[in-house]
Amino acid sequence: MTSASQLPALPAAKVRALSFVSDPNPSIEDLLGIVHSDPALTAGILRAANSAASAPVDRIKSAQTAVVRIGAAETRRIVLGIALSGSFGNLQRSGINEDELWRHLVATAVLADAIAWGSVEHSSAFTAGLLHDIGRLAMAAQWPDQYSTVVQLAQRGIPSQEAERMCFGFDHVEHGTAIGDAWGFPEEIVEAIANHHGPSHRGISWAVIRARELAGSLGISDGLVPAVPLEEESEASMLPVIEDLGGESAVLERVGWYSGALHAA
């Protein structure tokens, strides 16, 4: 089990941005306040607003116009993604394929958002998808040399959680759950982090589990081992989510839009 001394501190520079984890509906004014305070956030928002997917008539040059262009909900999601990547960056020494891991997180978020229904808020489902592997990000950033052994073991066929427990005495699910608690994430987000490998039959956790499986069906891996195709007759295979979003190419384009904003930061 993760001890308190092993938990990363909430990065001071990211406190305001990560506070949006608990605020699914921030105002435009709140968003502009945090975007204006951080050049990385400004760069990411401008990249998203000026992308082909956003189709601006003229090039957008101000954060205020960019936020209005893409909207408060999308701005919040990009702010959270950039804050997360800025808190746990430079993972090369860990052996993880960093670009693929971020595609996995973004794809899971996009698909969890689309799966959410009933009492599950779409904004919360997206957030849970984005944050579900925060334990892996933290372990790879905190102890990159040690985590490189995990990657090597996983690539030899040992399940990644088992490899993590062999090397650390705990796995990324436990570490991520402890971080979520320590950083004051909402209970439903912490629950999704704790249960993203299953089993879960309800709420956001279920949406994140199915979204991870669907991301794998698009060929998006977790940054450690190749993506796993969907099993026939699995719950995820019966969900028409990808078709509802316009097909595989449309989903991948959406994932690329968010990922581009993160890389611009």
Structural class: mainly alpha
Radius of gyration: 18 Å
Strand content: under 5%
Number of helices, counting only DSSP H or I runs of 4 residues or more: 15
- Provide the succession of SSEs: HHHHHHHHHHHHHHH
- What's the end-to-end separation, in Å? 34 Å
What is the strand tally?
0
Report the major sheet. Answer: none
What is the correct CATH architecture?
Answer: Orthogonal Bundle
Shape: globular
Describe this structure in words.
This protein has 265 residues and is mainly alpha-helical. The protein has one domain (4-264): Hypothetical protein af1432 (Orthogonal Bundle). The protein has helices at 15-18, 28-36, 39-49, 63-70, 72-87, 98-115, 122-131, 134-142, 144-155, 160-168, 172-182, 187-195, 203-217, 241-244, 248-264. The two termini are 34 Å apart. The model has no long low-confidence stretch (mean pLDDT 93).
Write the layout of secondary structure elements.
Blueprint: H1 15-18, H2 28-36, H3 39-49, H4 63-70, H5 72-87, H6 98-115, H7 122-131, H8 134-142, H9 144-155, H10 160-168, H11 172-182, H12 187-195, H13 203-217, H14 241-244, H15 248-264
Brief account:
The protein has 265 residues and is mainly alpha-helical.
Structure keywords:
mainly alpha; Hypothetical protein af1432; 265 residues; 15 helices
